[in-house]
């Protein structure tokens, strides 16, 4: 698009009249507005988060415990199995002090399996209600510690204010795009009206000041003169041919290249949140990239390694998100449906449904590519080929994945031979042959057809 | 006035061209059968099998080459029993650099680079109660057991790390605990 625009601008210059420069400037302004508006929209900070205020402190503790110390102890000892308001490995703990007698709780926390064995009715019932998972014994917690923890769990639940989602920048990308487009059309229309008005005013000023705009004398029309000049016609024809073959070539060369391909996936997975904000290593999920030809689509049990615990999108107050909290939580629910996870009972139901991911990077069958060679042996960063994925809200193909692109990198990149015994001998011999210490993949035969096509 | 018409034309043409380009659809190809092969593609849909998928689970009881069965079950008793396990010979020599690399990818995100339970996900309160290795009664055998089966909120990492790699990481965990 910018290419076309620049050509048009150039043409306008040739036509030329006294207002052309200012018009070009205005037009450029319009173009720059066109491109800068969406970025302004994105920069607009989301509404300040006002997540649940810690109302806990205000409430009177159930016992003579200190809820602040209790929170620390809870997070250090209990939180890996218990949540305050939701079932986890163990039951939810808010208000647990009201359900059981204090002495009973001390005994339970110090050694629950002993109580179950001794046949304490309440203990056996609790054990059976919670999938018969034995709770780790905590003999190291003193009774005062437990009082503190109970004071923390007895604090009333913070009131969740029903403000518009703290992380929602817009209800959906579709709507905001339409608004931006509408605004752009409006801006362009205003600019056109301004141009007309300016032109009219200038003419009026000219008339008032007695400036006479020279009237062109009708002569031979430019087009007729041009058609008569055979040299000009020939040159134009050649130029047109060259230009059209240039564009035709460019068009033919992009056939089969899926750069920027960005399909809609069945579950919206944001690489920005996972790899960017949370900083999870690419290879945590794409673990096969280290050891195999394919980088692999992570199976859903990898998602569940974290999402068993993270059932709701919480967001971070420092980050701006493209979608609302409800939207992201809904996507996590889609994962639960697909993998057959029941959050209420903390069990797999066994009812699964495959997720039909849309493949983005797809090399044709006639070319061989191996991830492990590049990731583990060469130590190439994932971002070198896949781009800044940690900033992508929606995944897309960053590189063209054409042969020219592959070969270019093989020509330019020095092979990492240090610390790799496999290369010791071959490096010495090739270094002697080429008379240089740094070797590229191409020096080692990476540009031979048979390396990748066989 | 002519210039305005030209601007209008430029806008229309470029808007038209831009709207034709849809990044949500793949580009057209010269020889599609080179890209969409007749053979089954990995993970593709296929009516060759009853469940309509190309990817099938291995037959029950089959094991891959070099696989050593781990016979301790995923139970609290099994966890206690695993504590006595030494590092087996097939885990290979301890390679600290390699183990550290794997630990950084798979464990440090929650457990922290030093194993103090202060990884990024713990700091961002996605996970609470990630323990410090020093505060837990763990042995190299029990660390391997937990990597294989998971424990409480931690999931199994058996499909991301091979057995040998898990033993390497377990030794690195014990090294961090000892520091």
TrEMBL record, chain B:
> Where would I find the Cytochrome c domain in this sequence?
94-177
UniProtKB keywords = Heme, Iron, Metal-binding, Signal
Q: Where is the signal peptide?
A: 1-18
Highest taxon of the source?
Answer: Bacteria
* Molecular functions (GO terms): electron transfer activity; heme binding; metal ion binding
Q: Does the keyword Signal apply?
A: yes
Q: Does the keyword Heme apply?
A: yes
UniProt name for this protein? Cytochrome C
